[in-house]
Task: structure prediction
Amino acid sequence: MSSNTIRFSKTHEWARRDGDQIVVGITNYAVDQLNREIVFVELPEVGKNVKQGETFGVIEAVKTASDLYAPMSGEIIESNMLVSDNPNLVAEDPEGAGWLIKIGPSDWSEWEQLLDSEEYQTYIQSEEHH
Amino acid sequence: MPKTIFFERHETAGATMTDFGGWHMPLYYSGIIDEHLYTRAKAGLFDLCHMGRIGIWGKEWQAFLDYVLPANITAAEPGRVLYSFLLNPKGGVIDDVTAYVAEDYGMLVVNAANREKDLQWIRDQLPRFPGVTVEDWSDALAMLAVQGPNSDNVMKHFLGRTFSSLQYYTFRELDSASVPAGMMRTGSPPGAGRVPFFLYSATGYTGEHGYEIYCEPNTALSLWDTVLAHAEELEVRPIGLGARDSLRLEAAMPLYGHELTEETTPLEAGLTRFAGLEKQTEFIGKAALLKQQTEGVRRTLVGLEMKDKGPVPRHGYIVKNASGENIGTVTSGVYAPSLQKNIAFAYVHPDFSRVGTEVKIEIRNRLFPAQVVKRPFYRRSS
Result:
């Protein structure tokens, strides 16, 4: 995967550019923090508008419920129904089949505010040392 | 933050740690669901040193315990374990405890977060019983548990031919000479003359067959190491507090601070058979419980099962009836790995406590259907 087409948020979502859309999921690191045990994922309805940094859904592990944050503003084009039916798909393949939503971004300048792969790696290393 | 004697072992095993009841404890080693299912299928080894152990003996020690507990201690055969409560005068639960009745002493096992509060409460009742001694045995006696179908084999591995299986809620005490890998006590811990060397009971907090073990700390470390050195052949794994919570919830066992508080009574919690209402002698809280029995409770604990796969009901969520009126509150909830369903405990208005009653749980401003079900949620087959 080219580093130009994937970006990360500090809240551990990834966004992959796919034409005029982005595919969004949570990172391998985030899934590790949830101990790879996902019991429920709540995703938005198609057509809903989300804002960058705002909650678009919830992911629940055995002990915790965590908000999911939109990496970019825009319209929800698709929610991954496979994940709603089988939440553990997120744990098994968070950066592939366990993707969560597709967004049609309304402001592509937001893409540049996200971290690239290298910046994200640095960020999680600094987080781990806390 | 205090750590138990097993702390280095948890770290070495790569456990994810959590703070519980003021203690630094393992939340999980491999994963909560994994450990839960393994305990049900094979066996789990639990570090429970964070719990409190309180020794009680001296002239009239049974009468003293009969005064501070609803359980009938004087009538109990030595070797029995009784589930009971420390109650305030309003019948509210200061703590839920297991009471061990030996020939010449009693031991109360109390919740980690309540250790100091309980000791203080128990000591406050002593002036009426000047011959009784109360001592904190928590440091002198380590505590662990082996739970699950393979428990007998695990116990045998450590105790050898000394081991014998026990009836549910009974215990057996062993001296240092009869514990093969037993260590001598070093120094003179408090209560050295009275505190048991090695004691195990057929009790637990998982709904499985198994044992809780109280012993001299070096012997406890030796047990942990000996058993886990043969973990694969014995089919036993260390289990963290995460699975301990989901196991106890499936077994519908209450957790202090959730189902039981100083504002709730054993009658409300559906634990009337432990409330001592038939007991002849006086105990703290008795009058209030008898009054509540006559007047009826205003809320009652129920088991709820979510109808659909969906969000997990959690502590504090509101329970509503079909017309959307608030009828209660969730006290604990979990994704139940053995049932593959979401389950919860909730206090509800008694009108909604019958098995089969349909209710709704409000989760993040949406209502999800649930039903009152029979407890326990999970019952082992054998």
